Each structure stands twice: as C-alpha cells, then as structure tokens.
Amino acid sequence: MNKTELQTLVAVLQARFETHMPRHPNLAWAQVQQRLDKNTAAHQALAQMEATGGEPDVILQDASGRLLFADCAAESPSGRRSLCFDEQALAARKENKPAGSAQGMADAMGVQLLDEQQYRHLQTLGAFDCKTSSWLATPQEMRRLGGALFGDRRYERVFSYHNGVQSYYAARGFRAGLWV
Fold first, then answer.
1. What is the side-by-side order of every strand in the sheet holding 157-164?
2. Which of helix, strand or coil describes residue 54?
3. Between the CA of residue 46 and those of 132, 136, 150, what are the distances in Å?
4. Cβ atoms < 10 Å from Cβ of 170
5. Once rounded to an integer, what is the mean pLDDT over residues 135-153?
6. Are the beta carbons of 165 and 89 closer than 8 angstroms?
7. Residues 125-136: what's their mean pLDDT?
8. Cα–Cα distances in Å, from 27 out to 32, 109, 137?
9. For residues 33 and 58, is the Cβ–Cβ distance under 8 A?
C-alpha cells in the first residue's frame, strides 16, 4: 500500500469514526490513529475490508487497549457473499461450487469472522443484516458435526441460526473483525 492509498484509507476511517461516535463513545480518533500507526500490518486488512464493502469502524476496546474494527455496512458486505463456510466445505462440494469460502477469504484478508458475542454487540449499535445474513465464527464441536452459525436481524430481533457448512446463498456473506 503506497502513502497516498494509506492516507485515503485513514481519511475514510476517520470520517466514519467521527460520523458514528455512538459506536465508540469513550474513544477519541487520536487513540485509534496511535494504534494504527503501531500496527502497519492492519492497514492492508482494513483496506480489504473497505474494498469488499465492509465499511469498517471501531466497535469495541478490550482491557489491554486493543480496538476491534468490524464491518458496519448495513448489509453483509457485497464483495463477500455467496460463500460456503470454510475450505473443507468447499472441497467437499461436488456440484455447483461457490467461488470460495468465508473462512478462506477471511484468512486471505488477514481478518476473523465475527463471533456470536461480537455480532450481538454490533447489533446493539444499529440495525445490521435486515435483508442479508452473515456467517459467524463457529465452535469446533459444531463444525466437526458439519454445521456452522450465521446471524441476521428480522422482526426487530437478532437471530443466530445454524446451517450446513456447504450451503451458500446470494444474500449470505460474512462480517470481518480485526483487532488493532
């Protein structure tokens, strides 16, 4: 990423951060900028989140001061849909294979799928996935049995469900998270 691209990305992130202060009421942009300056590896991952329609913004801060950037686009990011859950599920599909998997794409981007707790926290900050759904990080016990979690918001409620890992839908993508 060259200097101009980085400056453009940081300007977009800062504008989004300042526009949506209720997502992070106890943070100032200077704190975020300081974390970004110390973690240059995060720049490319955030650029990928942005380029695929995620609209990343800070939604959490942990006890050590790390910040969680998460996709805050109203619907599951458009550049990350029609994916089965993981590479093992993709390899097992014999017909009508999707272009890829949510876990494979997340790994390539250097991000994580949001887990159920992070997803539910995100939903306290706005109405997300009212028309789409998003694959979520899934406990290994469930994955070993061939299932995975996904979430959405319908009827003013947040739901998490299960589906077979090989399934994929045009309206299901994944929401990424990145700790910085």
1. 157-164, 147-154, 133-136, 172-174
2. coil
3. 22, 19, 22
4. 9
5. 97
6. yes
7. 98
8. 8, 26, 27
9. no
Averaged confidence pLDDT in the chain: 96
Please count the residues of the chain. 180
Is the CB of residue 29 less than 8 Å from the CB of residue 20? no
The candidate with the shortest Cα–Cα distance to 122, out of 175, 52, 63, 53, is: 175
pTM for the structure as a whole = 0.94
**23-82 residue pLDDT tens:** 999 999 999 999 999 998 899 999 999 999 999 999 999 999 999 999 999 999 999 999
Which structure tokens are listed for 141?
């016990």
Give dist(CA 74, CA 126) in Å, integer: 8
Name the amino acid, one letter, at 122: L
End-to-end CA distance of the chain: 18
